[in-house]
Automatic annotation (TrEMBL):
The gene is LOC113517354. Residues 69-345 form the Sulfotransferase domain. Keywords: Transferase. This is Luciferin sulfotransferase-like isoform X2. It comes from Galleria mellonella. Belongs to the sulfotransferase 1 family. It comes from the Eukaryota. PANTHER family: SULFOTRANSFERASE SULT (PTHR11783).
Length: 353
């Protein structure tokens, strides 16, 4: 059968997971902190993962997408070091092609599978459309999105080898994923991920979070932040950590011993590297260099106002930096929460800062 017909048939398969609208009073708990667009929210699957409603439009296409044996996915809960690991994986997977890495933006080399979900949310789309009227520098982004509203479809059709980023938990990704392609999953201490996510939601125009960290943390542990519940996301991946197509990494282990993480990735992708190459790559990935690297640091989005110009996507880069945001009471509460939700299942490497 013709390949296009097969792809179409796949895409038309019925979505087997449950999608529920979030009740208005629960949405209001989030909306009260949002200074810009206030999207409607949904809960996905039996776990009830929290998402803006734009995901409804693409979840089925993603679930039924054709996965190829030479695809490489980086999957994480947001703010767990995705960008860092994407660059590492892309360079190892592309024979250390630093030239292309510096000339082509990482988000083009390694696209974000469900990126369009935010702009597909009708209320966010409408808000941005109105904002474009008063802020013309946003227009090219808005229009290119409208023209390329199928940017996920571009990923589906991209030539191999594909490198794909996703924050979706395994249960929302294609069921064939791990038996077909390679997946690098990165986990980070939820307290650091939450602090990083809080800054992210403040600096990104399309999130526009206006509350303080305490408010954000409360939403986070009550599963009212995109992609939560955190513990379900990480446990789904942890259960699969021994699968031969899976490499489970911790942000904390990269922080502690980056050369060792580089060697693990090179072994996993069957791309041998010399010690000299490991050292050069570690230098390239070092926080100070990474932050200045225009093809990964997202500064490109500052020029159009999608990111506040005084903020940094590559922000602090610390394991354990959460301590500056949690008072004694929050620290204890977070410890209890982690014990209850993660127990002894996921063992984070101990990090001292
Ligand atoms: P902080 O906000 O705590 O600094 P993601 O790429 O998943 O959005 O994760 C972003 C987090 O990874 C940010 O954390 C960012 O600073 C950190 N990060 C990115 N590159 C890094 C690097 N080279 N070294 C250490 N941390 C890095």
């Amino acid at each position: 059968m013709n390949k296009d017909v097969l792809i179409k048939m796949e895409a038309e398969k019925k979505y087997p997971l449950e999608i529920k609208d979030v009740p208005p009073e629960e949405q209001a708990e989030v909306h009260k902190y949002l200074t810009n667009a206030k999207p409607d929210y949904i809960r996905m699957g039996s776990t009830g993962y929290f998402f803006p409603d734009g995901l409804k439009e693409i979840c089925n296409k993603i679930y039924n997408m054709e996965v190829r044996p030479n695809d490489v996915f980086v999957v994480t809960f947001p703010k767990s070091g995705t960008t860092w690991v994407q660059e590492l994986v892309w360079l190892i997977g592309n024979d250390l092609d630093y030239k292309t890495a510096s000339n082509v933006q990482l988000f083009q080399r390694f696209p974000f599978l469900e990126f369009t979900m935010v702009l597909r949310s009708p209320k966010i789309n409408k808000w941005l459309g109105e904002r474009v009227e008063t802020d013309p520098k946003l227009r090219p982004f808005y229009e290119s999105f409208t023209r390329n509203s199928r940017s996920d479809a571009t990923i589906f059709k991209a030539p191999s080898p594909r490198f794909i980023k996703s924050h979706l938990p395994f249960s929302l990704l294609p069921p064939t994923l791990l038996d077909t392609a390679k997946v690098v999953y990165v986990a980070r201490d939820p307290r650091d991920a939450a602090v990083s996510y809080y800054h992210h939601c403040r600096m990104m125009l399309l999130h526009g979070f206006g509350g303080d960290f305490r408010a954000f943390w409360n939403l986070f542990i009550n599963n009212k932040v995109d992609y939560t519940p955190y513990e379900a996301h990480i446990k789904e991946a942890w259960e699969k950590r021994h699968h031969p197509n899976m490499l489970f990494l911790f942000y904390e282990e990269l922080s502690k011993d980056l050369p060792a993480a580089v060697r693990r990735v090179s072994q996993f992708l069957n791309k041998p590297v010399t010690e000299e190459q490991v050292m050069r790559l570690c230098d390239h990935l070092h926080f100070d260099n990474f932050r200045k690297n225009m093809s990964v640091n997202m500064d490109i989005f500052k020029h159009i106002g999608l990111i506040n110009k005084d903020d940094h996507f590559i922000r602090k880069g610390k394991a354990g930096g959460w301590r500056d945001y949690f008072d004694e009471e929050m620290t204890q509460q977070a410890e209890r929460w982690m014990k209850e939700k993660l127990g002894d299942t996921v063992q984070f490497p101990i990090c001292k800062i």
